[in-house]
Amino acid sequence: MFEQRLTMNSTINALVTGGAGFIGSHLVDRLLADGAAVTVLDNFSTGKHENLVPHDKLQVVAGDVGDYATVERLAQGMTWIFHEAAVASVPATIDDPVGSHQTNYVGTLNVLEAARKHRVQRVMFAASAAAYGDLPEIPKTETMAVKPLSPYAVDKLASEYICRVYHQLYGVETVCLRYFNVFGPRQDPSSPYSGVISVFTDRVSKGQAPTIFGDGEQTRDFVYVADVVAANIQAATVAGIGGETFNIANQRQTSLNELLRQVCAVYGKNLQPGYDAPRAGDIKHSLADTGKARNILQWQPKVGLQQGLQALIDSLRGA
Ligand SMILES: NC(=O)c1ccc[n+]([C@@H]2O[C@H](COP(=O)([O-])OP(=O)(O)OC[C@H]3O[C@@H](n4cnc5c(N)ncnc54)[C@H](O)[C@@H]3O)[C@@H](O)[C@H]2O)c1
To answer: Whose CA is closest to 286, among 252, 246, 261, 319?
Structure first.
C-alpha cells in the first residue's frame, strides 16, 4: 500500500556492500528491476556468486569493505549506498572479535567516510535488533535502552552511532534499519547458527527433526526478506529521515515450537523436535514495535509468517 517504486528520471547508481549475501542479493534484484545501476562489493566469505543473476547494469567487485581505498573508489558517483556487508554470525564474532570488528565497525566507518567524500545522497545501514540484548521489556521501540551482548551487537550499535554522528557533523544522510529475524530464499542453512527458519526448513524437508535449544517457548519476530528490501527502498526515498533508526519486523511474536509446527504443516510432516540446553547469549523474547517505521518510513510488512514460509518452501522446491 505504502511502498514506492523507483521512478527514475535520471539513473540511480547504488552500491550494495554484502550484495552477494542473503538480504543483499534480494536488494540487488529489486534495484535492478526498478532500473538502477548496481555495484556489489562482497568478499564472498558467506555470499555466493549464484545469488547474483548477470545483468548489464550489474557490476560485481570482489573486495573487502574493511579496505578504505576499495570502498572510496566504488563510492564515486553513487546515489545511494546500502551497507549490508557484515560478519553476520554472532558466534563468529565471539570467536574473532578483532577480525570481525574490521568488517562490522571499520567497514561502516569506511562506507560513511567514502560517502562524505563523494557526496553520496544517502547511506542505508543494516543494523540489528541484537542491539536490544536481553532487557525484558517488549515490544521494543527505537528509544528504549540497549544492551549489546556480543561483539556483533556492539559493532552494530557502534555503527548506528557513527552513522548518526556522520549525519550530525557532516550532513551525510544515514538511515539505520534494525532488522529483527529475517527469513526467505537464499538464507544458508548450513550453519547451525544461521536463521532458525532456514535450519528448520532444511531439516524438516529431509524428514529430520530439528533440535531446539531451550524449551522452544522463546519467541522471535520474523520478517520476510522482500519486506526488508521494501523498507530499504523507503529508507532511500522518503524525504527528511537522515539520522533516523527504524525497527524492521512484523510486530508478531512466534515461539520456536509454533514455528516448527507451521514448517511441518507446510511440508505435511509430523516431527517432534529434540530439545537441548539453551545456548549462551540467546534471548528469551523478541518483539518489535514498528510504529515508527509505519508512520515515518511509510512502510509496513506485507508478508506474514505463513505466507513467507510457503514462498520460501516453494522456492526450495523450485516451484
Ligand atoms: N539475517 C538476519 O536476520 C539479520 C538480522 C539483523 C541484521 N542483519 C544484517 O543484515 C546484513 C545482511 O545479512 P545476511 O543475513 O544477508 O547475511 P549474509 O552473511 O548472507 O550477508 C553478508 C554479506 O556480507 C559479505 N561480507 C562479509 N564480510 C565482508 C567484508 N569484509 N567485505 C565485503 N563483504 C563482506 C558476505 O560475503 C555476505 O555476502 C548484515 O549486516 C547482517 O548483520 C541480518
So the answer is: 252
